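Please, structure for the following, as tokens.
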Amino acid sequence: MAKNTEVLTVAQKAKAIRVGTDMTGNFGKASRRQIAFGTDSGVSRHGENAR
């Protein structure tokens, strides 16, 4: 998208292309790993896990 836009400046296009390439590479690395989502709180009432 950044390559074909008239809205961004040349510097913005270059940065968008660089960042987009990095994001694609990082997503590829992450997709090959096991990712767990959770919390360090056991069963507690909402808003009390910081205590």
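The longest helix spans residues 10-31. The chain has a mean pLDDT of 78.
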